[in-house]
Amino acid sequence: MATKPSNHNLNVLKKPLALFSQSPMTGFYRDGYCRVGPEDSGNHAVAGLLTKEFLDFSASRGNNLRSIGLEPGCKWCLCTARWKEAMEAAKGKDDPVVPKVYLHATDESALKNGVTMEALQKFAAEPEAVGGGRSAPEGAAITPNAKGGMVTETH
């Protein structure tokens, strides 16, 4: 299972990665964090707010997130490549095909997988755009949910 504890992952702001969502329970390791480890070949690093348009876009690319119960308004750890695809397909900054991003909960590995900080900031959720967001206290122990398990989505 997880080999890299969440409290060692940093977000794109170079601070400890923050909890993103426990309802629905998100993250590759289903522990609420958009953390990435060696088992996560899809790099589920981008903490995004799902929109109808993104769900349609993702389904058109072969990954129907609705099939696992997701709907517009859910917070979900997205594959970096899929988020980037949506960004490249967008017709502007306000195109709802691109999920808004929560920087405090986006794993820094997104920056090593083809997404720039400028792009993430361009689509940052409103409080994030003005410097908001919280991180877990430094050194806080974070353990995966006992019911968690790895994601088995298709890409």
- Determine the number of helices (DSSP H or I, runs of at least 4 residues): 4
Shape from CA axes? globular
**Largest sheet: spatial strand order:** 2-1-3
Biggest sheet architecture: 3 strands, antiparallel
Strand content: 5-15%
Give the mean pLDDT.
83
> What would you call the structural class?
alpha+beta
Global Rg: 14 Å
Describe, in plain words, how this protein is organized in 3D.
The chain has a three-stranded antiparallel sheet with strand order 2-1-3. It is built from four helices and three strands; from the N terminus they run βαβαβαα. The two termini are 20 Å apart. It has 155 residues and is an alpha+beta fold.
Summary keywords:
alpha+beta, 4 helices, 6% strand, disordered N terminus, three-stranded antiparallel β-sheet, 155 residues, 3 strands
Brief synopsis:
This protein is 19% helix and 6% strand.
Task: Indicate the topology.
Layout: E1 46-49, H1 52-60, E2 75-78, H2 80-89, E3 100-101, H3 117-122, H4 126-129
Antiparallel strand pairs: 1-2, 1-3
